[in-house]
């Protein structure tokens, strides 16, 4: 079978290979009618574009690298879905790399993506990451980078995040208005801005409403079900026990609910629980889990749009752009105590 090339397509349509190439790339100089003819013929003849040759000509691979901390967390899958919507609409493919919350694997992932000559990188950093030289080096090579969700300030790298401080404040405020008096907090690793901001939002709400506060009601977890269980064990061992908890994310909140159920502590009557991220499982728990929705698909779309703009202006030093999305509170059974 004859290999179908743009020259073969050009002969069939009695035009030039250059016109065929521009039509396949939807160049504005080519009429819509010609584009339709070229695309229809290419599909009919099962034309396969030579991506290597195309990349050599354009200097672009039309591939984006995306690094996520964990594929087991539905939050990241939903963000990637948003990224793909915009990427596909603009002719880009995605290389997805899971770091397993490891700085070592994150560094290897960046190296792998650079070796694949991706046109840009989207990344949510691992909870182990404290050294960012791998990203600084990639930035020095001229590769556009955008953080999403978990970002690091001071690197001159653009980001798309939720307003973590505001979301935490609102969640804590809700627990206060539901009549809980001693509200605790399960944090994440506090070297990460995302988790530190949520703790500060919690503290600000407690202070604004003049709520009683104790350092014993702060438990630094590691973003896991087990840390949520351990936190409840700690809180219930105290002389002055909390009667509610705002958890930094839903897995810690899930652990909290499990341990409260194990200890036969009624939720929300005796103990309120509020999470963060609105994971898919949250609405299916008993009781269902109140949580902060992070507008994941919108976050993915915004991150990809921002990366596209950086790639389009690659020759000009772009100012660092930081986009902050509004959190949405989802009220469910775990925090809605009936106050008599």
UniProtKB/TrEMBL annotation:
<dbReference type="Pfam" id="PF13377">
    <property type="entry name" value="Peripla_BP_3"/>
</dbReference>
<dbReference type="InterPro" id="IPR046335">
    <property type="entry name" value="LacI/GalR-like_sensor"/>
</dbReference>
<dbReference type="InterPro" id="IPR028082">
    <property type="entry name" value="Peripla_BP_I"/>
</dbReference>
<dbReference type="Pfam" id="PF00356">
    <property type="entry name" value="LacI"/>
</dbReference>
<dbReference type="InterPro" id="IPR000843">
    <property type="entry name" value="HTH_LacI"/>
</dbReference>
<protein>
    <submittedName>
        <fullName>LacI family transcriptional regulator</fullName>
    </submittedName>
</protein>
<keyword id="KW-0804">Transcription</keyword>
<feature type="domain" description="HTH lacI-type">
    <location>
        <begin position="4"/>
        <end position="58"/>
    </location>
</feature>
<dbReference type="InterPro" id="IPR010982">
    <property type="entry name" value="Lambda_DNA-bd_dom_sf"/>
</dbReference>
<keyword id="KW-0238">DNA-binding</keyword>
<keyword id="KW-0805">Transcription regulation</keyword>
<dbReference type="GO" id="GO:0003700">
    <property type="term" value="F:DNA-binding transcription factor activity"/>
</dbReference>
<dbReference type="GO" id="GO:0000976">
    <property type="term" value="F:transcription cis-regulatory region binding"/>
</dbReference>
């Amino acid at each position: 079978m004859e290999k179908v090339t743009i020259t073969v397509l050009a002969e069939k349509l009695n035009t030039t290979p250059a016109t065929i190439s521009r039509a396949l790339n939807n160049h504005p100089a080519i009429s819509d009618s010609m584009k339709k003819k070229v695309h229809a013929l290419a599909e009919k003849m099962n034309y396969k574009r030579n991506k290597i040759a195309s990349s050599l000509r354009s200097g672009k691979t039309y591939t984006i690298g995306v690094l996520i901390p964990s594929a087991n967390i539905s939050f990241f899958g939903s963000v990637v879905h948003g990224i793909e919507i915009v990427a596909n609409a603009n002719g880009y493919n995605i290389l997805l790399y899971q770091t397993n919350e490891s700085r070592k694997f994150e560094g290897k992932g960046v190296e792998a993506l650079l070796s694949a000559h991706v046109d840009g990188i989207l990344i949510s950093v691992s909870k182990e990451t404290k050294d960012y030289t791998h990203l600084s080096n990639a930035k020095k090579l001229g590769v556009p980078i955008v953080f999403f969700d978990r970002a690091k300030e001071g690197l001159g790298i653009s980001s798309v995040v939720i307003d973590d401080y505001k979301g935490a404040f609102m969640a804590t405020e809700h627990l206060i208005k539901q009549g809980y008096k001693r509200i605790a907090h399960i944090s994440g690793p506090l070297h990460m801005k995302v988790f530190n901001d949520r703790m500060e939002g919690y503290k600000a709400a407690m202070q604004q409403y003049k709520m009683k506060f104790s350092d014993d009601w702060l438990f630094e977890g590691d973003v896991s079900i087990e840390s949520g269980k351990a936190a409840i064990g700690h809180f219930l061992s105290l002389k002055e026990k909390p009667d509610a908890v705002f958890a930094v994310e839903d897995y810690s909140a899930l652990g909290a609910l499990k341990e409260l159920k194990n200890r036969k502590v009624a939720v929300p009557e005796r103990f309120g629980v509020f999470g963060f991220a609105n994971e898919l499982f949250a609405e299916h728990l008993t009781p269902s889990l109140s949580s902060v929705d992070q507008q994941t698909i919108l976050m993915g779309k915004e991150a990809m749009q921002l990366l596209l703009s950086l790639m389009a202006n690659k020759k000009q030093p772009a100012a660092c752009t930081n986009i902050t999305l509004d959190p949405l509170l989802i009220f469910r059974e775990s925090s809605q105590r009936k106050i008599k």
